[in-house]
Each structure stands twice: as C-alpha cells, then as structure tokens.
Design brief:
It contains 13 helices and 19 strands. By secondary structure, the chain is of the alpha+beta class. A hairpin with a 5-residue loop joins strand 5 and strand 6. Helix 3 packs across helix 8, helix 8 crosses helix 9 and helix 8 runs parallel beside helix 10. The longest helix is centred in the middle third of the chain and has 17 residues. The N terminus and C terminus are likely disordered.
Length: 480
C-alpha cells in the first residue's frame, strides 16, 4: 500500500506537466499515457527496472493493461534511440522500432515508413476520417468489445508490414520528377499539377533512383525482417479494436509528432487540429504544448505537404552549399555549423541499435567571410560542401576562459529537409524544376538546449542557408 502510494506521487511528479491515465486500472494505479484517438495510445517508455518503475510505467503493468482492454489488437511502436528499458519479448515481440534521437525530428523518410505500417495495423487505406475527441477517449471495457470482425481490416501480413510502400503505388518515394512540374493546393483542398514545358532538370533527374530507392527500400526490408514475428503474434483476425501504442522516453515530443503525423496523413486532420488535440489529451492546462520543439513542428508541416499537397512524392536530394547569411549578428566571431546524417549506407544498415549518425559538414571560419555589412554577414565555403536529406544549422558563440574550458553563452539550432525547402515555392505550391533552395529561420524559431526554449544570449535576428542542387545528380541521370 505504501509502495503504491509512493509510486503514485512519484509518477505524478515525473509526469508533470503531463496528464496521467487512471481509467481501467484494476487497483487504482495510474499510467503515464493518453489516448490521442481510440486507435492511438501515447505512452511514456515502459521499464523493467524496479526503481524506475516507481516513476515510469512498468512493462508488466502496461502489458496487463493492453491485454485486459485491447486483447490481441495492440502493437507497440518504439521511437527511442537510447536503450529501450525492456526486451521485445516482454511485450510478446509486438514491437516495431523506428528510433531517432530525443528532442529532434526523425529523418523524414521515417515518416512514410511509420505511416504505412500503422495504417496497415489500425485501418487500411484512408478509412473514414476520425474527428478529434471532445474528451479523452477511454479504453473499451471487456464487456463492450465488438467481436464482429467482418467489417474490421485484417491484421497486416508479414509481407505488407512496413513493406506497404511496395503494395501501394501512392506511397512510393518517387525519384521520377519528370511528371511533377508545379503542384499546388487548390481551394477545394485537393492537389493538382499546373504543368510546365520546362523539363530540363526534371528529365535529367528522372532516373536518379539510387540515393532514394535503394536506401529507403533497404530500410523497409530491414524493418520488415525485424518485425517479421508480428504476424504469428497478432494473427489474421483479432477480437478487439486495434490500437497502436506509441512511446519514446517521456511519451511527448517524438511520440506526439509521429501520432499527429499519422492523423494528418491518414485521417485528413489539419496540423493545428492534430497538435491541439494532442496537447489537450496529454498536457495539463496551462503547461505548454504537447509537440513543442520547433523542428518537430516543422516536420509535421512537411508531413501535411507530403500527404495533402504533393501526392506523397518524396526522395532525398543532394545539394551543394552556396552561402550562409547571418542577419544582425550580436558578435563578429559567431560560429555556424551545418550537419546532416552521415551517409546513405546508414539506412541500408538499419537496425534498432544502429541509427544514422549526425555528421558535421561545415563549420564557418573567418576565411569564408565574404561580405560584412551593418545588417548581415555572409559565409561562402571555399570548397564544395555537400548536404543530403535532412540538415541541421546550428548557431553558437563561445567565450574563451583562461581558467577553464571555453564557455558557450548562446546556442540555437534548427532541423530542415532539403527536398521540401528546395521545391516549395510558396505555401501549398511546389515546383520540381527548382535548381536552388533557401532555408531561413529566426532566432525565436530555433531550438535551444535539449529542444527547449533556453538558448542563452541572443545571437542574431535570423540565419539563412542557400544551396544549389548538386550537379552530380544531373551527371548520374545523364549517364543512365
């Protein structure tokens, strides 16, 4: 009794400012989780460690709850890049791993993989839209479970789980941009192409499939093999409504982003609707947003464009850095760093324990300073700097300290995706003939330490990164 009381208060303290869930628990326990919809359950990461189980969900408790309330209709998605805290076998091997680092968005290609897997599990191809609940949904009671499976989708087969991109042509990460001139969102909410006679770059790039198709298809194959035992675990029919359990460490940023991404892509929700609903069911009133990290919000907007504007077209592109411009810099010795994921082979070697490493590609230096005015300074690299896929720009200022290590008195960063920032010409419109791109982010929209708003000293008004589509891509296409 005392241990249960201590656990209750510890979980409440650690979960704060999140809401706790206490419905359907046999002995009045609380779990750090919330239903985003009746098919999406967001949870803090469960643990097998006895001490941590006082303030985190115990794996056995979570499994007991799922078995009791969802029978054989549950499947767990683990987004933790850090150690999980439990073994897959503790959850009957019903675990799909898509790990990415805390306080960051995932590589964008993860999002279509996740959406295809979860739609196979909970509903199939774009079922009727689920509207946001006015109150947090509760798990069905054991005596109210609908056992009629005639209208319920079958469980995902081993061949389709996270291989759905091959089974649904609309989800293929395209490398053929020759037919995609200008995509624009019309007033009716549907995407359409306005057409163009300029096919120079598009035709040159149309057969450049190695970077995207090989790496992403390899990841699908790896994930499918990892998840292959799920077919025998779940079976071809289930006796309870399906639910996907999404968890990271705290069950907030990473899980919230991916849950909202599914609702935006598969249920037709707006970004605001999905994010507000997650905040309402997961957070205590007045304690901030559920998805609060600026870069994660940016990737949620990318998901909306991918699903509802450009007909699910995506591929990684390679670019060459042109310039970095810092507006209203506070210091003349400000340092700018550009990073991306190390290489495409990381994706071909996908496993739950091996995730793409972030690799620094460029660090600004005084030698690269080409223009300095009262309004901005501009850096242009003297050598070619190539970037691929998802990139991070970081701004920081270091104060030399003769008595100890150098002191960072200000730092901010932002993740962005080169595909979307290159081809988006304005909100709701994309032109796949663009050969140049630019990303601009203000200081207030940068992420601080560990994704929070604390960035230290104000360093600049905004940062602008410009690039050109890499010529090597055109050469590859021409050789083919």
């Amino acid at each position: 009794m005392v241990a249960q009381l201590v656990s209750y208060y510890l979980r409440a303290a650690v979960a704060s400012p999140k809401l706790l869930y206490d419905h359907g628990m046999p002995n009045g326990e609380v779990l750090d989780m919330a239903y985003l919809t009746d098919e999406l359950l967001i949870s803090a990461g469960p643990t097998n460690d006895y001490r941590r189980s006082f303030y985190r969900p115990a794996t056995a408790e979570l499994k007991q709850y799922l078995d009791s309330n969802h029978k054989d209709g549950w499947l767990v998605y683990n987004f933790r890049a850090e150690p999980s805290g439990y073994e897959d076998s503790d959850l009957d091997n019903r675990v799909v791993h898509l790990p990415f680092r805390d306080h960051t968005p995932p590589p964008f290609f993860y999002i279509p993989l996740f959406i295809e897997s979860i739609r196979d599990h909970v509903g199939g191809a774009n079922p009727a839209k689920r509207t946001p609940p006015s109150t947090p949904p509760r798990a069905p009671s054991s005596d109210s479970v609908d056992t009629d499976t005639s209208t319920r989708p079958l469980a995902p087969s081993q061949s389709s789980l996270l291989e759905g991109i091959s089974s649904d042509p609309s989800l293929v990460p395209t490398t053929d941009v020759s037919s995609l001139q200008l995509w624009e969102r019309s007033d009716s909410g549907r995407s359409h192409s306005s057409g163009s006679d300029d096919t120079s770059l598009a035709s040159q790039m149309s057969v450049n499939s190695q970077m995207s198709q090989v790496s992403q298809a390899s990841s699908q194959s790896q994930i499918s093999r990892i998840s292959g035992s799920l077919q025998s675990s779940i079976g071809s029919t289930v006796s309870a409504p399906r639910v996907a359990v999404l968890h990271c460490k705290a069950g907030k940023g990473r899980s919230g982003l991916m849950g909202c991404a599914f609702l935006v892509a598969e249920r037709g929700w707006s970004v605001k609707n999905a994010a507000d609903s997650f905040t309402r069911v997961r957070m205590r009133p007045g304690f901030g947003e559920g998805v609060s990290i600026q870069s994660q919000k940016r990737y949620l907007n990318y998901t909306y464009d991918w699903a509802q504007v450009i007909a699910r077209q995506y591929r990684d592109i390679k670019v060459d850095l042109d310039y970095i411009r810092v507006w209203k810099p506070q210091y003349s010795d400000i340092v700018i760093t550009l990073s991306d994921y190390e290489n495409d082979s990381d994706r071909a070697e996908y496993s739950p324990s091996a995730i793409p490493e972030v690799k620094k590609r460029y660090i600004s230096s005084p030698e690269d300073l080409t223009n300095e005015t009262d309004d901005y300074i501009t850096f242009r690299p003297k050598e070619t700097v190539s970037l691929t896929g998802d990139c991070r720009v970081k701004v920081k200022h270091v104060v030399a300290n003769p008595f100890s290590l150098p002191l960072v008195d200000g730092q901010g960063d932002a993740w962005f995706n080169l595909f979307f920032e290159t081809f988006r010409v304005r909100e709701g419109a994309y032109d796949f003939h663009n050969t140049e791109g630019m990303f601009s982010v203000s200081w207030s929209h940068m992420d601080g330490f560990r994704g929070n708003f604390q960035k230290g000293m104000w360093l600049c008004e905004r940062v602008e990164v410009g690039w050109r589509v890499a010529q090597s891509q055109e050469g590859t296409a021409q050789e083919s």
